[in-house]
Design a protein that fits this description.
- The protein is of the alpha/beta class.
- The protein is built from 11 helices and 14 strands.
- It has 2 domains: 205 residues, NAD(P)-binding Rossmann-like Domain (Rossmann fold), CATH 3.40.50.720; 87 residues, Alpha-Beta Complex (UDP-galactose 4-epimerase, domain 1).
- Helix 5 runs parallel beside helix 6 and helix 9 crosses helix 11.
- The radius of gyration is 19 Å and the shape is globular.
- The two termini are 28 Å apart.
- Bound molecules: nicotinamide-adenine-dinucleotide.
- The site of nicotinamide-adenine-dinucleotide has 27 residues, from helix 1, helix 5, strand 5 and strand 7.
Length: 326
């Protein structure tokens, strides 16, 4: 069995690569290394079971046909995942998320790939009326990042119908764990490393969201994919996140505790009158994950435990984050 993992040198993609290699897949990582790192997939490359193709998926060329030929499944994880920058630089998300997804789908079509897993996001729901938010809740994104994921989902859905590509859409909550390179925890650690007495918190600190450890994401993704294969389903959407949630203020407390600091003054900088961290920030996010749990999956770590593990890994690894780079 042969798999392509786009964005496979990134945080989540590299865990997917590891898991596929362990399952005996031959894996081709396609990544432009814009945020991905060679160090993330070094063991997989050294095993001889994974190969890396450094390629910018924004640029469609003749090469796509040979890259996607004889591939059983494509895990499409390449994207720009930084929700915050989509407000100031919307073109980045259109190109990195929508155009890249279109190109990958074209690769699937001309290479006759029959299966695709797509990394979508909770941000497609926007400010949900129902919490926990189920998969059939209306999608009303409030950020360009969110709309770029929704546009990508729509493209995937139509390629699934028209060209028979079996497609699994996973709407991720916030994912944390080893090798992560963005998000609130990193923001806090970096700020506290430069000033251990003052922490600027984007928003009013009451934003509350759900966090899932990357190892729980991998087991959930595997369960969902096996299920739709066995059930002969051609297009299915699953939320994947934790059953609990944590406020931004609580995350700050966790980071301060793990860094063994005291006397840290929190300075809140709400970007909107209702206390969001930035324009386009969804203030409350908790996904209804009962659909996935009905397949026998359950997160093994709570949001708090997942965050604590990620903080500990980062405190051991942040300074080395770039040491693994190309
Ligand atoms: N981390 C989260 O909490 C989270 C939440 C929801 C959805 N997602 C989605 O999951 C996926 C992986 O996110 P991540 O957190 O691992 O991010 P990441 O930045 O670590 O990984 C993205 C990878 O894609 C590669 N890439 C970007 N643009 C590319 C291009 N044009 N051509 C080829 N490669 C390109 C990068 O080099 C990187 O290796 C993304 O699609 C992201 O939107 C992540």
């Amino acid at each position: 069995m042969k798999a392509i993992v786009t964005g496979g040198a990134g945080f989540i993609g590299s865990h997917v690569v590891e898991s596929l290699v362990n399952e005996g897949y031959e894996v081709l990582v396609v990544d432009n290394l814009s945020s991905g790192r060679l160090g993330n997939i070094k063991p997989a490359l050294e095993s001889g079971k994974a190969k890396l193709l450094v390629k910018d998926l924004k640029v469609f060329d003749e090469g796509f046909k040979s890259v996607f030929r004889d591939v059983d499944v494509v895990y499409h994880f390449a994207a720009n995942p930084e929700v915050r920058i989509s407000t100031t630089e919307p073109r980045i998300h259109f190109e990195e998320n929508v155009v890249v997804t279109f190109n990958v789908l074209e690769g699937c079509r001309i290479g006759d790939v029959k299966e695709l897993v797509f990394a979508s996001s909770s941000t497609v729901y926007g400010d949900a009326d129902v919490l926990p938010t189920p998969e059939d809740h209306p999608t009303k994104p409030i950020s360009i990042y969110g709309v770029s994921k929704l546009m990508s989902e729509n493209l995937v859905a139509t390629y699934s119908t028209v060209y028979g590509v079996r497609s699994l859409i996973l709407r991720f909550a916030n994912i944390v764990g080893p090798r992560q390179t963005h998000g609130v925890v990193i923001d806090f650690i970096e700020k506290l490393k430069s000033n251990s007495e003052r922490l600027e918190i984007l928003g009013d600190g009451t934003q509350r969201k759900s966090y899932l450890h990357v190892k729980d994401l991998i087991t959930g993704m595997d369960k969902a994919l096996r299920h739709i294969r066995n059930a002969g389903r051609y297009y299915e959407v699953y939320n994947i996140g934790n059953v609990d949630w944590v406020s931004v203020k609580e995350i700050a407390d966790l980071v301060v505790e793990e860094m063994r600091l005291d006397k840290v003054t929190y300075v809140y900088t709400p970007a909107t009158p209702d206390g969001r961290g930035w324009v386009g920030d969804v203030k409350f996010m908790l996904l209804d994950v009962r659909k996935l749990m009905s397949l026998g999956w359950h997160p093994t770590l709570t949001s708090r435990e997942a965050l604590r593990e990620a903080i500990r890994w980062l405190l051991g690894g942040t300074l080395n984050i770039h040491a693994d780079a190309l």
